[in-house]
Automatic annotation (TrEMBL):
Regions recorded as binding DNA: 31-50
Family matches, as Gene3D superfamilies: Tetracycline Repressor, domain 2
Bilayer-spanning residue ranges: none
Keyword tags: DNA-binding, Repressor, Transcription, Transcription regulation
Top-level taxon of origin: Bacteria
Protein name: TetR/AcrR family transcriptional regulator
SUPFAM superfamilies named in the record: Homeodomain-like, Tetracyclin repressor-like, C-terminal domain
Domain (HTH tetR-type): residue spans on this chain: 8-68
Length: 198
């Protein structure tokens, strides 16, 4: 009787191996040969599960993203407006060790985005979703009367995203320059600015 192969499980295993290789040595460590070797495949066998390296790298990124998304959903459940916005901002900053690990994967993913239209398209979609969430919380905060800043919501959402991306890069490249109290103060000051009429 032929052995039944669970293709979804095999794909997950390949993504897990890729994620670990990126964490250990960056994108350069995640060669197709090393991914196949660590996952227990013959060198050419990966093509049965993925079209190429970009698709595998995207899978590793989505693994981190889905994990964060699940935790965030639970973290802000039942909250809205400025309260949800502040919690979301604090939770997505790369403070804990687990966040630092995910940040390394993200940085490798960004590198691939610079050279692959296919990979960049997936990230563009993620940014749109991320921004839409911030815009929803900002709109709720205005409805509730908690946000009084005249700065347009679109600009505020962009500021939040850029703050987070900048913190992610520093967390990977120069972690000694990223102090938790600085990040906390930035969020506190940003939220206070939202509450002030200008």
């Amino acid at each position: 009787m032929p052995k039944i192969i669970d293709h979804d499980q095999r794909r997950d295993e390949i993504v897990d191996v890729t994620w670990q290789l990126i964490v250990e040595g960056g994108i350069e460590a995640a060669t197709m040969r090393e991914i196949a070797s660590r996952a227990g495949f013959a060198n050419g066998a990966l093509k049965h599960y993925f079209t190429g390296k970009d698709q595998i790298i995207t899978g590793a990124y989505e693994r981190s993203l889905n994990s964060l998304g699940d935790r965030l959903t639970a973290y802000v459940a039942g909250k809205r407006g400025i309260e949800a916005l502040e919690m979301f901002m604090r939770y997505t900053l790369p403070v804990e060790q687990e966040d630092a690990t995910a940040a390394r994967v993200l940085l490798s993913f960004w590198e691939r985005c610079a050279f692959s239209v296919e990979v960049r398209g997936g990230y563009d979609a993620h940014l749109d979703t991320w921004k839409a969430g911030y815009l929803r919380y900002l709109a709720e905060g205005r409805e509730d009367g908690d946000i009084r800043s005249s700065t347009p919501d679109d600009q505020l959402a962009d500021e939040i995203i850029m703050m987070n991306i900048g913190a992610t890069v520093i967390r990977v490249v120069s972690p000694d320059h990223l102090h938790v109290d600085v990040l906390e103060r930035q969020v506190t000051d940003f939220v206070a600015r939202l509450r002030r009429a200008d």
